Amino acid sequence: MSLSRRDFIKNTAALTAASYIGMNLPFVAGEANAADVASWHRGTCRLCGTGCRVQLGINSKGQPVAMRGEPKSRTNFGYLCMKGMMFYKIMNHPDRLTMPLYRERKDQPFKEISWDKALDIAARKFAEAKQQYGPNSTAYYGSGQCLTEETYLFQKIMRAALQTNNVEGNPRLCMASAVGGYLTSFGADEPIGSYANIEKSSCMFLIGSNMAEAHPVIFRRVMRHKMNNKDKVKVINADPRFSATSRIADMHMQFKPGTDLAMLNAMAYTIIDEKLYDKEFIADYAVFRKGKKVLVDMEAYWKSLQDYTPEKAAKICGGNITAKMIREAARMFAKSDGTVSFWCMGINQRKRGVWANNLIHNLHILTGQLCREGADSFSLTGQPNACGGVREGGGLCHILPGHRLVVKEKLRNQVEDAWGIPRGRIAPKPGAHTIKMFQQVNSADIKAIWINCTSPAQSLPNVDLYRKGMAREDVFIVTSDIFPTRTTELSNLVLPTAFHFEKSGVYGCTERRSQLTPKVVQSPGEARPETWIATEWCARMAKYLNDPVVLQTVKPFLGKEMYVEQPQAIWDEYTQKLTKGRDNDLRGASYTVLKQMADGVQWPAPTEAFALTGGTVMKFVKGVDPMATSMSKNEKPFQFYGPAHPDKKLWIWIRPQAGADEEPDADWPMYLSTGRVIDHWHTTSMTGRIPELMRANPYSFVEINPKDAMRYGIKPNDMVEIESRRGKVTMPAKVMEGPIEGMVFAYWHDMHEDRMINKVVKDSFDPGSKEPEFKICACRIKRVSGPKALKPFIVT
Amino acid sequence: MPIGGFVIALDRSIQDEVLTQFAKFSQIEIHGVDEEGNAVAVIDTETSDEMEQLTRDLQKIDGVLSLGVTYFHAEDEIEKIESGELKPTLSFGRKGEKPANCS
Ligand code: SF4
Is residue A38 part of a domain? Predict the structure, then answer.
């Protein structure tokens, strides 16, 4: 019987869904697959840090027409969330930037110009800034959504050609505290294990993460594991807000914002008090520390915990926290056959985010819930390449590629030698971290800044303060992106870039997994890959600066075909020269290997043969991690060889409770917290252009606890003003048992001037990680009117 | 006219009731349910709006634990957008010329 084209497509849809759960359907796969997709191309989802593998369907005209999950992928097993399934639809969007745009002054309209002119202007402006005001008057602000090749190349140009470490990126806003936590607790950045631990765990501790909305495909695994083992697997969710994630939890620990450190210390207290710790593991692998240089013993640690008996902590934490609950949570955590902790921005975006990370790691070290199946201390990553590009590729002001610190001369020299530039060329001091960088834009100490693939004019905390600086006429701003944003509005030069699948490159997701996305679609108009843009820009700067080292920086990539050969040459240089012997050794993950792998390679992967097995599923375990084997110092099964701990030990930290930088008071009586919704990605420049997603959440809402709503006379959908010492916004109310009483929770995706919540959020930051405390500040709220018809808004 | 392939996780204890609810929607075809309560579903709607509304309605049904999309096809829409016949309703034109506004 012949099938209509529509039936073909429907059969494909059914077969794809059925393949994920191993169900056989009575259709012939070939028949269904013949429906209008000429070829399928494997790549990685463009959006969150989960790293789901996708297949993009291209028709005979070369247009992207369908998307499906990659069933062989060990990250998502074929599942995708709606965002992942639909991101390809923006490739054809009429708002795409297709020509370079320029204006001398920011109060002028943009004019289209040629690439030749655009690159020349950018080169001249940065060269002039360097010559007149010194290297640190230039800066690069990138993104955890850039490909690794892009981040690596831009930071190389900034450090080698312009001689500044003013290299930052938006992962400073989300991941820096996790980096600080891993380095100080384990001596090495990034998680030890993999998502595979989910299905092997008996207890999952989810704290400061609404993974049901922010990482829906990981949550699906967590939820399925819980549902399949309802009695055996325990889920603890700790969060001041009851979220979609909390619904599957056996226990929801709802504490007052900013009291997480007390709660975690109280769990540690119980673990020691009830002798639930792993004596042998601690003796073999851990030490106790108070400060970086101060070693203490377990007795001193125990003494420090006396301020956090469950009874005392319950008083500090408020909410529904009781001493009994803390004890129960600690027992579940410690006694389970395998406990995995997951956390995200709720822990990282805190004034003491690094400490909060340390205290979660403490629980794992104390109980030996590490380096075995089902056990891990796992920080979730927000963006698709915050780990791979920015953390590993040298995308922050204090780190060089391969997890090297700028301040260490020996490590700088290694990089200089690999790049073939004179020793001493890389500046010895770290550059300005994100908030400092934009403070320096405010004071015009930075004269020329390149902003790539991100929109700080919406995403920075206390954003209006920094938008004023960005609007200055004496600060030259280049923005490279695919759509107009709040940041292109403040730029002099806007460069149109190729989107995902319109260029080749690698993303490294949360579980140390590097995955290649190939170029299979033509980018619109004159949009170009960033690697080409950066190479050409640097080559032009060489002329203005009359400096051979500037040209040397990009010489290996100049003139190469821009979509595949150029990124491949950059990847080869980075992996072969800069990761060799480092803990993120990626030498085996060549493009040739990555092309063969359904789901990429987990580092360390020093050889192609090992990379072809998938790489390292669990770090530090001899026989599993090749570096643990090659760097083994003794007969013990685990080898903590991380570069930041010379003693090769895990460090259990004494960290006291520390509240938010700005706590509520009589004038500002409420806590404000912010976060994401499932349908949107960050500032909505992409998801706001997908009607299905935008309609689901057309504007931001503020969630208000029913008790607070009653106190303030607020009804559902009333317009509510949220005001802080920095600014105010107005958005409709959702009255719900979500946020704890005394706290409101606003979605941060909305671009509308009236609803951009980052105008209200405070720009204080963790003194260690320099990550801003987006999650807590003080505000007041008031009802301004009944419901109003609002229009969704995106910048065009 | 979008077509989606979904795996819908059902609460096994009330699976039959949920499937009866699904039967009320003509746009949904259920191709089977495995022993863990995962239903294979195809949703075929006239417009993206309808697809989006329907998936939202389904998630409100008691016993629907999650809705996992595994395939999405929208060629007709893409071709119409490319030919200029369809303008995504949430586009507001291109390259709006606005001076910097820091309110
Ligand atoms: S969970 Fe994240 S990576 Fe996976 S499909 Fe959704 S947005 Fe993409």
Answer: no
Q: What is the CATH number of the domain that holds A354?
A: 3.40.228.10
Order across the sheet with A138-142: list the strands: A111-112, A101-102, A493-496, A476-481, A448-452, A138-142, A167-169
Which structural domain range is residue A280 located in?
Answer: 176-380
Q: Which residues of B touch A489 (CB under 8 A)?
A: 98, 100-101
pTM assigned to the model: 0.90
- Nearest ligand 1 atom to the CA of A75 is 4
Measure the CA–CA gap between A651 and A293, rounded to whole angstroms: 12
Give how far A47 is from chain B: nearest CA, Å: 16
DSSP string, A723-734: E-SS-EEEEEEE
* Same-domain check for residues A394 and A375: no
Tell me the CB-side half-sphere exposure of residue A609, using CA atoms within 13 A: 1
Q: Do B92 and A796 touch (CB under 8 A)?
A: yes
CA A44 – ligand 1 centroid, Å: 9
If contacts are CB pairs under 8 Å, which of residues 256-295 in chain A contact chain B?
none
Mean of the per-residue pLDDT values of chain A: 95
The enclosing domain of A755 has a CATH number of 2.40.40.20
Q: Report the chain A residue with the minimal C-alpha distance to residue B34.
A: A23
Which DSSP string corresponds to A328-364? Answer: HHHHHHHHSS-EEEEE-HHHHSSTTHHHHHHHHHHHH
Pair A543, A673 in one domain: no
More confident residue, A25 or A752: A752
The answer to whether the CB of A790 falls within 8 A of the CB of A694 is: no
Is any Cβ of chain B less than 8 angstroms from the Cβ of A794? Answer: yes
From edge to edge, which strands make up the β-sheet containing A286-291?
A294-296, A286-291, A650-653
ipTM of this complex prediction, to 2 decimal places: 0.82
Per-residue model confidence (pLDDT) at position B82: 58
Beta strands of B11-103 (E only): which ranges? 28-33, 38-44, 64-73
Looking at beta carbons, which residues of chain A come within 8 Å of B94? Answer: 94-95, 484, 796
Contact B5 A68 (CB under 8 A): yes
Note the pLDDT of residue B102.
32
Residue A705 token pair: 């606890």
A27 at B interface, C-beta within 8 A = no
Which protein residue's CA is at the shortest distance from atom 4 of ligand 1? Answer: A52
- Distance between CA atoms of residues A480 and A498, nearest Å: 10
Q: Return the ligand 1 atom nearest residue A80 CA.
A: 5
